[in-house]
């Protein structure tokens, strides 16, 4: 299993504080030590940082914690391998270009028996079920909108993605963050929480580190920010759990679309592949 | 115009020394201050670091200079914008996935009138002629090898790429580095130099910084490394200029294929787009 963190805002914001808490789950407060990654959209560009080292101890994660990168959409992941070795190619978020936009995808859960249909245009570089699902999803979008020359926006994409993710979620747990830099698409099978912050911005206290930050001076009236995380990142803020089968879309920090599929089920947590060389938790701290 | 740096080796090697010299061209010793990027292949994975800040002063470039990342294939670029604003989306190397491999592309030159054919599956995210050319190239490969389920290797790819890059080079200067992590494909229109190092490895002295490194203790008998760069990175080593129209392939540090198209011409250097907001050199040093 893995953990997810995402952000959607109406003005570019830094995630150094949130990522400081989140990345502690990669070896300090939790055992998601098999790599990590974070994607920052910067205008049309998308910068992805990733490393197969534990996020809590990776020098590159330390760089990300120390250097604020302002972005309106962020997707991050710390990995606990259940399928696919510990290697760069298996670090989320994965990325593909479609109609001139970079799409990124991060997943927590397992879709072990899932195989993309034959003839899928997108093919996995690594060996995870997650990347296979992302390839199938992107190929589905290419097929569904096949005569388009311009990328569709979230009002058109949302029902197509809700339908497709719902089908993926029949194969196993699909807690997922997906973005094209414009909107953040979210599916929950078992564990995902959201928090929206508006003016007046609170003083926030991390769950995973003894650290707090007064968000008031960093934000103005009219600023809106929604955070997503597998488990709440801060104490004393109104994080809400998403339901099983829930699909949501966020744009400019606001929730703009929601659908719940009552048929979607939560699967029991799978045991890691017995042949898999995952890292023991102590490896991050030794 | 821009500058390129590439590496192909038979054992994973760090490029911190070479990148220290190369990145100085992004603001210290040359005016390629409009962003930079470097791709490191790590097994099947590919990690791309990029920033729209000058390479000589970018904190992320400093991270790359200080943290050795061992790789068998590296592609790097410092940008002097001639077409396309200064922004992340216009930083090379660009990347696309094809048949389960990540391809990266970096370009120096200008192909101003070049437009990818209608119906190109790959579409540019940014606004450079370089990314348009890369999209056309990848779409050409997809079409040429369209029934494949496994990626072709360099013996099959080399003649197809030599032919296609030769056609691209009819539109303007194409100094190019391209890789799928297995081989490094190189085209020269005007400026590109190569250096192969074998045992006994020399003491190397950078052109751009007052820095030298004894490569002997870092390498063993049997190690082979080829470096490519727009201009030689070190003094007193036998860098060779590639010819106009020359296409070469390197694998495991060795040159494995070469073809010269005598019809290819070198175009006069184009002036930057007058509407383009490039950075003055002093901006990197202020």
Task: Give a short summary of the structure.
Chain A is α+β, with helices and mostly antiparallel strands and 286 residues long.
- What's the shape of chain A? globular
> What is the H/E order of chain A?
EHEEHEEEHHEEEEEEEEEEH
Low-confidence stretches of chain A: none
Instruction: Using the coordinates shown, work out and report the CATH topology of chain A.
Output: Glutamine Phosphoribosylpyrophosphate, subunit 1, domain 1
- Order of adjacent strands in the largest pleated sheet of chain A: 3-2-4-1-12-9-14
CATH class of chain A: Alpha Beta
* Cα separation of the termini of chain A: 22 Å
Tally the helices of chain A. 5
Summed up, the domain count of chain A is 1
- Biggest chain contact: A-B, 34 and 34 residues
Work out the helicity level of chain A.
10-25%
Q: How would you name the CATH homologous superfamily of chain A?
A: Aminohydrolase, N-terminal nucleophile (Ntn) domain
- Any idea what the CATH architecture of chain A is? 4-Layer Sandwich
Average residue pLDDT of chain A: 93
The whole-angstrom Rg of chain A is 18 Å
- Largest sheet descriptor of chain A: 7 strands, antiparallel
Broad structural category of chain A:
alpha+beta
Describe this structure in words.
The structure is a homodimer of 286-residue chains. Chain A has 286 residues and is an alpha+beta fold. In chain A, helix 1 packs antiparallel against helix 2 and helix 3 packs across helix 4. In chain A, 18% of the residues lie in helices and 34% in strands. In chain A, strand 7 and strand 8 form a beta hairpin. Chain A has one domain: Aminohydrolase, N-terminal nucleophile (Ntn) domain (Glutamine Phosphoribosylpyrophosphate, subunit 1, domain 1). Chains A and B meet through strand 3, helix 2 and strand 5 of A and strand 3, helix 2 and strand 5 of B.
């Amino acid at each position: 299993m893995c953990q997810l963190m995402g952000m959607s805002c109406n003005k570019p914001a830094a995630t150094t504080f949130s990522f400081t808490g989140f990345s502690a789950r990669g070896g300090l407060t939790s055992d998601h030590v098999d790599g990590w990654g974070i994607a920052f959209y910067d205008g049309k560009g998308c910068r992805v940082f990733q490393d197969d080292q534990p996020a809590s101890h990776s020098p590159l994660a330390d760089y990300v914690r120390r250097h604020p990168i302002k972005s309106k959409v962020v997707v991050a992941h710390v990995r606990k391998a259940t399928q696919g070795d510990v290697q760069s190619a298996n670090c989320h978020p994965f990325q593909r270009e479609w109609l001139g936009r970079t799409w990124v995808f991060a997943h927590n859960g397992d879709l072990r028996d899932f195989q993309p249909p034959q003839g899928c245009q997108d093919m996995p570089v690594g060996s995870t079920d997650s990347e296979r699902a992302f390839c199938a999803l992107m190929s589905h979008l290419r097929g569904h909108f096949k005569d388009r020359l311009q990328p569709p926006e979230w009002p058109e994409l949302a029902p197509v993605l809700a339908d497709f993710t719902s089908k993926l979620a029949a194969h196993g747990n699909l807690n997922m963050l997906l973005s094209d830099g414009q909107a953040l698409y979210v599916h929950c099978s078992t564990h995902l929480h959201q928090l929206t912050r508006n003016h007046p911005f609170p003083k926030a206290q991390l769950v995973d580190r003894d650290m707090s930050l007064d968000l008031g001076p960093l934000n103005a009236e009219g600023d809106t920010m929604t955070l997503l995380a597998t488990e709440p990142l801060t104490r004393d803020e109104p994080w809400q759990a998403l339901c099983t089968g829930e699909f949501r879309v966020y744009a400019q920090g606001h929730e703009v679309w929601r659908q719940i599929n009552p048929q979607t089920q939560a699967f029991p947590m799978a045991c890691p592949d017995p042949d898999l060389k995952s890292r023991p938790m102590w490896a991050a701290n030794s």
